[in-house]
Amino acid sequence: MSYCLNPQCHYPVNSPPERFCNRCGFRLLLKERYSAINPLGMGGFGRTFLAVDQDIPSHPKCVIKQLYFSHSEPKTFKKVVALFNQEAIRLDELGKHPQIPTLLASFEQEQNLYLVQDFIDGNTLEEELEKNGVYNESQIWTLLKSLLPVLQFIHDHQVVHRDIKPSNIIRRKTDDQLVLIDFGVAKLLTNSAILKPGTIIGSPEYMAPEQGRGKALPASDLYSLGVTCINLLTGVPTLDMFDIVNDCWMWQDFLPAGVKISDRLTEILDKLLKDSLKERYQSAEEVLQAINLNNTVKATNSHNLINLISELNTDYTKLQHLLAKKRWKEADEETWVVLCKASHKSVGSYLFNSDIDQLPCEDLQIINQLWLLYSSGRFGFSVQKRIYRAVGGEYATFCEIIGWKVHNSNFSDSALQFHSSAPTGHLPSRRWVGGCYSWWLHAQHMATRLEQCGIN
C-alpha cells in the first residue's frame, strides 16, 4: 500500500506500484525513493508516517515527518524554510548518538517540508507500562542511567527536547536500548514566533513550570524525566499525583500496596521534581554524579575505608594525597605509574589491551574508588565505563562526551582539562594506552574488565 501525502486528499490509500495518487494525482514517492505506507500521527501543521525506502533492495522502514503550510504567506514560508534547515542541521548532529534516531534526509517538495528518520522498531515505555504494569526501582535506576547521558549529549549541543514522556521513549528490540524520539521540530517550527507567538511546546502533564511560562531550559527536560519516572513507578496519571493545595508532588502515596522506594532514589526523584529551578538539578551530569555518589562513593565516604596498599604491594598513598589536594594533572600521571606497577611493567610503559584484560581487580577497585571519592563521582574508570556502555560502545561519541580527541591515543597535556569542572569521565586520561591499530578498543577492554571485577 502507498499513502498519498497530499494534506487535501480525502482518499489517500493507493495500491502499488502506482507512482501518482489515483484520486488527486499527487506524487507518491518523495525524492523518488521514500514511500509512505501508513499514518502514525498528526497535528495542526504536521503529520508522521511509517514509510519504506524504495532505493535500497531490502526496502527498510523509515519515518517521514511532513510539515505543510498551504495557507502561509510567501515571506512567512521563506522564514519557516530557513528555520527548518537550521533545525535539520541540529537533528543531523543529534542523530549521531546511538540512542537518537538518525536523520536520513531533509528537503522541501511541493511546498511541504519533510524529515526522514530511522524507524525504531520497539515499544514505547507507555506501551510497556500498559502491557507489563508498573516499573520497579531497579528498572528506574536503569532508565536513569541510560537516558541521562543522552540528555547530557543533546544539552551539550544546545538543544532542549521539550517533550520527555513515556510515549517518546522507545525500547529498541534489537539491543534493548532506550531511544529518545520526537524532538518536536514540527512543533518548534509551527508554534514558533513566526506563526503562533506565545504558544507553548510540550505535554502539560509532564511539563516543568518554567516551560509552561514559555522558557525551556535543560533543567526542564530533567523535570519531565522525573515526572516520567513517577508515572512508570505508579501507573497513575501524572496530574493526579500533584497536590495543588500544597504545591508539591505526592507520588509516594500512589505507589502500589507494599511497594517501598529507597531513600536514595526518592531523594533523586524529589530533586528532579522541584518546582524551583534553584532547588532542582541543573544538568544531566549533576544527576549522574548524584547517582554515582549514592551507588558507589557513599560506601567509601572516607579514605580510611580504602585499603591504600594492594596485595601486590602497590602503594596508593601518593595517588590518594594528590587527589585529595585536587592536583588532577599529577594524579593522572600517578595513575599511569600505579597501573604499570599493578601490571608488573616498568614505570612509563604503555599498557596494551591484553594488559588491561589482566589488571588485578583489587588494584582497579582502589584506583577507581579514589578517583570517585575525591572528584565527588565525576571522574573514574567506572564513570567512563557507564558512559561508554550508554553510547553503545561508539568510541567517537564516547570521546566527544568526555572531551577526548578521537584520533590519537596519546595526546599532550594541553588537550586535557585538569580541573574539577572538566567533562564527566574526562579523567583519568588514556595517556597510558598503547597499541598501533586497535588501541581505541581500550575502552571496550576496560569496561569488560571492570564488569568482570564487579566494579560498577
UniProtKB/TrEMBL annotation:
Catalytic activity annotation: L-threonyl-[protein] + ATP = O-phospho-L-threonyl-[protein] + ADP + H(+); L-seryl-[protein] + ATP = O-phospho-L-seryl-[protein] + ADP + H(+)
Record key words, sorted: ATP-binding, Kinase, Nucleotide-binding, Serine/threonine-protein kinase, Transferase
UniProt domain Protein kinase: residue ranges: 34-306
Keyword Transferase: yes
EC number: 2.7.11.1
Enzyme class: transferase
GO MF, one annotated term: ATP binding
InterPro entries: GUN4-like, GUN4-like_sf, Kinase-like_dom_sf, Prot_kinase_dom, Protein_kinase_ATP_BS
Coiled-coil intervals, chain numbering: none
Protein name: non-specific serine/threonine protein kinase
